[in-house]
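Before going further, it is useful to explain how the protein records used in this thesis are read. An example of such a record is reproduced below.

***
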Amino acid sequence: MPSRSSNAHLALWVAASGLSHGEIARRISAEAIRRGHRQITPDATRVRRWIDGERPRPPVPALIAAVVSEGVGQSLTPGDLGLMATGPTLDSIQLPLLTEAAAQTLAGWTQMDLFLDRRDTLKLALGAPLILAAERMLGGTARRLNRATKGFDADTTAALEEVTAFFTKADASTGGGLYRSAIVAQLAEVARRIQDGVPASLKVRVFTATADLAALAGWVSHDCSRYATAQRYWSYGIYAASEAGQRDRGVEIVTRMSHQMIYLGHPQDALGLLGIARRKATLPATRALVASQTGRVHATLGDEQSAERHLGAADALVADGLGDVPEWVAYFDAAEHAGARAVSARDLARIGRPRRASDHFADALALRRPGFDRVEAMDRIGLAAALFTEGEPEQGVAAAHLALDDAARVDSALVASRLNTLLDAARPYRTATVDEVRTRAADLVATHPTPVTA
């Protein structure tokens, strides 16, 4: 299946059906006759044109949907197949700021994510399209909602809030690999209910919880190395935050997108996203988060002066107290900022700027609160790697064994990536104790989701 198809949705679902273009054409003709449309007789070439982007006139979209639905064993609409003007777009991040249409887009993403279980379904957005999409979404305004009440009531809204809180805590503790499918399935149900209608009285609660759930779906997808999928869930999270009237919530999600750009080796894109976030952030906690993250990116780029300026700004905000911190950004505290300083020191040391990253990793570990097992494991691995880099292999070995004990309990590509930094740092040392660390670390990397090199 060519990846450059103009109608990626139709191409994906046709591939999933296992039917040839000729068989699809034959079945459409038969379905058309059954419905009384004897003049509709497509051939394989016409099906190819539809996949390439040609949009058929009614009633053909409904006929295509019926045939493909039967082929995949799942009910699909013309919108799911990209045959409607309001249908979702996969090759770039595009969301209509209209509740029902955006929910339809999200429903399409979750369907393909769960049903096809493919890592190459979507194309990662980079550069100007990514930056412009984030700016457009953060600057958007919501429109009138469907006032029907069958989608949500007080009880279902409370249940949504509770399950989102549960998954958020579980992810922070054990990593997202175990829960990703359940989180995406929950998000699919939310999308379906939003299309049914959200009462005005519950709008803020529903979309606040939806933003949290979409942000989490993005994060666990990223943590399972499904990077483009993560972008799409994050984009819906920003949209949902806008519907809830919580722009700073959207800002926090943009910082997650920037984190991904750092991780994937696109620091300039990360800076572009953070520049937008900085202009939109109003709460002390989000301003501090953006400053801390921005400093980290400049350190990645080797710009020591800019890194220190932004990290220092975050220092000051954290020291002054972050005020009444919303739950969705409560993870950002002195410990999280110390972790950013540690990684920044590590990156600057790589380009010849002497820094003791180990001191910052130790600070982060001392400040970490219970329940953040994944990031604590990453800090411990970072500490061990820093000690090796700083010429203290004996301390590095001791720290590494503690780190590997923690890492074994977490299912995370991010942890595996940090383990790779440990392997790199330990490489110059050829002793039995260091070899044992390398063997344990390599075995753990092999059991975790495949990370990128970062």
Observations:
- The CA atoms of residues 349 and 355 lie 6 Å apart.
- The mean pLDDT is 84.
- The chain has four domains: 8-85, 96-135+144-245, 247-363, 370-454.
- DSSP finds 20 helices and no strands in the chain.
